[in-house]
Design goal:
Cu cation binds at residues 79, 83, 168. It contains five helices and nine strands; from the N terminus they run ββαβαβαβαββββα. With 206 residues, it is an alpha/beta fold. The chain starts with 50 loop residues before the first strand and ends with a helix.
Length: 206
C-alpha cells in the first residue's frame, strides 16, 4: 500500500458527535449475527438504496456497487487527519480478510462533491488500496446517500472556497449484498477488530 500525506490548513477535529451526544443510534440485524456484532444499541434503520457517480464518471446504483461485503465510509479527500487514518485502517482490514480467503471491498463516498471529482477520488482511493472504490455525485445524490446512512456533515466553504474543512461523522459501515447494513466500526477499532468482526459476519451468513 502506497503511503500518502494529507495536509490542509490548520487541522480541525472531525465530528463524530453532535452537541456532545450521538445524533442517531443504530439498529443492527441481530439474530443469526448477534455473536458477531459490536456493542448493543438501538434506534432507527440505517442504509438504503442510493445513486452516485463512480471513479469513471458513470452513474451507479447501490445494487451495482454493493456486490460483496463492503466497508462503507463517508469522508472527503481534503480531510487533514481522520479520513486518511480511517481509510488506511480499512485498507489493512481488507488485506487481513483476503488472507483469510474472504473477498471484500471498501467504498469511500465523498461528502465534498464539489472538490472530490471522480478523478480526485480515483487518485485518493488508489493510494490506499486497489479494492477501495470512490463515489461522488451531485449535491442532491450525496445528500440522499448520507441521509440514508444517518451521516452528519457540514461544509465550511464560506470560510475559504479552496481550502475549507468539512465536519462529519466518521463511522465505517459493514454492508452485505442483499442484506444491507449489519454493523458499524468506530474510528478507534483496530484493523484486526474490523477484519475479525467482518469475517464473523460473513461466515455466519454463508
Amino acid at each position: 500500500m502506497k503511503a500518502r500525506t494529507f495536509a490542509i490548513g490548520s487541522a480541525a477535529a472531525v465530528l463524530a458527535l453532535v452537541g456532545g451526544t450521538f445524533a442517531w443510534t443504530v439498529a443492527r440485524s441481530g439474530g443469526d449475527l448477534a455473536d458477531c456484532l459490536g456493542g448493543q444499541v438501538a434506534g432507527g434503520a440505517i442504509g438504503g438504496p442510493f445513486e452516485l457517480v463512480d471513479e469513471a464518471g458513470a452513474t451507479v446504483t447501490s445494487e451495482e456497487v454493493l456486490t460483496e461485503p463492503t466497508l462503507l465510509y463517508f469522508g472527503y479527500t481534503f480531510c487533514p487527519d481522520v479520513c486518511p487514518l480511517d481509510t488506511a485502517r480499512n485498507a489493512t482490514a481488507l488485506d487481513l480478510l483476503a488472507e483469510r480467503g474472504i473477498e471484500a471491498q471498501g467504498v469511500f463516498v465523498t461528502v465534498d462533491p464539489t472538490r472530490d471529482t471522480p478523478e480526485v477520488l480515483a487518485d485518493f482511493t488508489d493510494s490506499f488500496h486497489p479494492d477501495i472504490r470512490g463515489l461522488s455525485g451531485t449535491t442532491e445524490q450525496v445528500d440522499a446517500a448520507a441521509k440514508a446512512y444517518k451521516v452528519y456533515y457540514q461544509l465550511h466553504d464560506d470560510e475559504d472556497p479552496d481550502y475549507y474543512l468539512v465536519d462529519h461523522s466518521n463511522f465505517t459501515y459493514l454492508v452485505l449484498p442483499e442484506r444491507g447494513f449489519v454493523d458499524f466500526f468506530r474510528a478507534d477499532a483496530s484493523p484486526d477488530a474490523v477484519a475479525e468482526r467482518t469475517a464473523c459476519v460473513v461466515d455466519a451468513v454463508n
